Amino acid sequence: MREKLHFYLTDTKNYISRFIDFIIYSIIFIDIIDHALMTLKSMSPYYDYMEAWDWVPLIVFSVEYILRVYSNPKRTSYIFSFMGIVHLIAIIGLCNIGPEVLREILVLRFIGLFKYEPAAINIFTTFNKIKRELLYFTLISIFILYISAVGVWYFENPTNSEQFPDIFHSMWWAVVTLTTVGYGDISPITDGGKIFASLIIYVGLGFFAVPTGLIAGAFADVFKRTKD
Length: 228
What we know:
By secondary structure, the chain is mostly helical. 70% of the residues lie in helices and 0% in strands. The protein is extended.
């Protein structure tokens, strides 16, 4: 019984599994639209109906979660897996426990649709291939962001403490500058700060091109192997 139930909840080829997925993802889509409409003041006359709808995804997803845990031969692995955690957090959000934004986690469940598309497997394979490189890049990025924040704070704080009162506020400037977004909401005014900012901009131009190259190279390799 458990094996058959697990098969229907995870398989992608039989009609019953596809029908179950169709129902689940349709409810997710409707719930997302419902929650978005509730942010419109013009929809206030219909709030009672929209709130009543919340019971549908809550009951369906709760039953689904229980069945997935019950039928999965590796229950603990599923509970602590990415999709298992997403599933549980979404249910908590639907129960109005914690921040309301938790229910928006439901949108991440659309990742499950990728199992129907072979091309999506190539994407996951690509990121899995370079996950260690991306991890180290992330750690180095955090280090550079911190150094950038400390540097601009050191130059600017004595004369521009309103915009750079501490390292944490300076971190926002570091993120915007290193990623070359440049909102311009805060900017250095001292000579030392401007020189330091110029160096950081050049670092950002080159440094954040690294993951693009890694991903492009890994994807090309995976695509070539798939074709072969």
